[in-house]
Specification:
The structure holds 2 protein chains of 2 kinds.
Chain A (H helix, E strand, L loop, with lengths): L1 H9 L1 H20 L13 H14 L4 H23 L11 E2 L11 E2 L1 E10 L6 E6 L12 E3 L4 E8 L4 E8 L4 E4 L5 E5 L8 E7 L9 E4 L10 E10 L5 E8 L8 E7 L2 H13 L1
Antiparallel strand pairs in A: 1-2, 3-4, 3-14, 4-7, 5-6, 5-14, 6-7, 8-9, 8-11, 9-10, 10-13, 11-12, 12-13
Chain B lengths: L2 H19 L23 H5 L7 H19 L4 H20 L14 H4 L1 H24 L5 H25 L4 H4 L1
Helix pairs in contact in B: 1-3, 3-4, 4-6, 6-7
Classes of the chains: A alpha+beta, B mainly alpha.
Amino acid sequence: MRTFILFIRRFFNLILFLGVEVVCIIMIARTKTLQGNDIVSSANVVSGLLYKKQNDVVYYFGLGRMNDSLLNENARLRLQMAMLKGIDTLHDSLVHKPIGKPDSTHVVRYADYVYRTARVINNSVSAANNYITINRGSNDGITRNMSVLSGSGTVGRVVHVSPHFASILSVLSVKQQVSARLKDGTYGYVTWDGDRPDVLMMRDVAQQIKVKAGDTVYTTSYSFFPPDIVMGYVFKTETLKKNNLQLLYMHPAANFRNLQYVYVVENKMDAERKELEDSVKSK
Amino acid sequence: MSVYLRNFLRFCFIVILQVLVLNKVTLRWWLEPMGFPIFVPYVYPLFILLLPFETPVWALIILGFITGITIDGFANTAGLHACATVFIAYLRTNVLNALLPKNLSEYAHQNPNVKNMTWTPFLTYAAFLLLLHHTVFFTLELWNFSNIGYLLLKIIAATITSMIFVIIYVLLFTRQTTARV
């Protein structure tokens, strides 16, 4: 017993060091999965308030750029509205709005999306998993797994929520993949390899599909995003030798370096869909 | 000013500097280089480096954990910064012993700085521990060894940039009273 106590006293620092490192590694290991952890996130009160105070100061410097992006978005929405007006809608109520597609079948696709605006108060692009903090939380109706869009394209999904803040795991993350499609309906998925914030990659596109530089990549209804949102624009294609599938390099549509405002999208049908899918899985 | 208060104020200052200023400074060394990593300079390990000489190792480890977990809370990286900071906090005493001519106990009530260590040993000390910190941090963060050159490039570029910020910090916050005498 005495030698044991002497041993502890002799190696106390080493034991403490190893103990603390094990605690850190356990915490890191918990964040490596998409479910993440709720112990440490920038959606907590202290960092949220600090980021908000800072954003109140630097907010004015980006107003010019933000105006430009809002104008562009308005122009795009006006164009879409003009296209929608030509479509004969089966159900013309406020709740159910058919998506802007001439429906040749008798199935009308309904979308029940609620858009909430939020101001970005913290943002990063240099980490392997980049998080964005916004100034809306559960008090404003934000819940986990809602998708987040900017005026020009996809941004990410909500992973932590506190009463007044929420943190978003952006598309620039090595641990999440987003289902995506090309203009002609070819499916694939979009990943990020963790180095450059202006390059995303779309994988698993078959070799015979003709893809040009400048083609648009959209989200699909398989992903947590609403369908047909622009993800990015292809600028380079490459055929992999090992499986003869194409790898498309694309620039994300959203500019992650200066995000000012984002839209948090709530899908009202998400709970029902998840319930149905889970009931199938459990059988 | 008591040594606890002074170190607490330095902790607050360095954390706020890191979180509100340097975390927003996303660096690339030149425009649009294909595959050159972008990174953020980390100077918060300086708080551990500047603690008094006689701080015991267990206190260094605990303070390192607190510093790291604070930065983690702001950066959404649970445990990554804490792991790297605890690592350098544990090694700090050994590095100081190796670099200093006298025993550590002879430097009572002093912080490591360029005056009592002179420039070369201080910069060696800071650069070595920052390199270790960045190595642990970026390795754990990326956790992908398929592109090891990219990882090394990122570590080295980030260390050099962080050292530049550390030197600026030291130049700004070293009292120049002795120089005038």
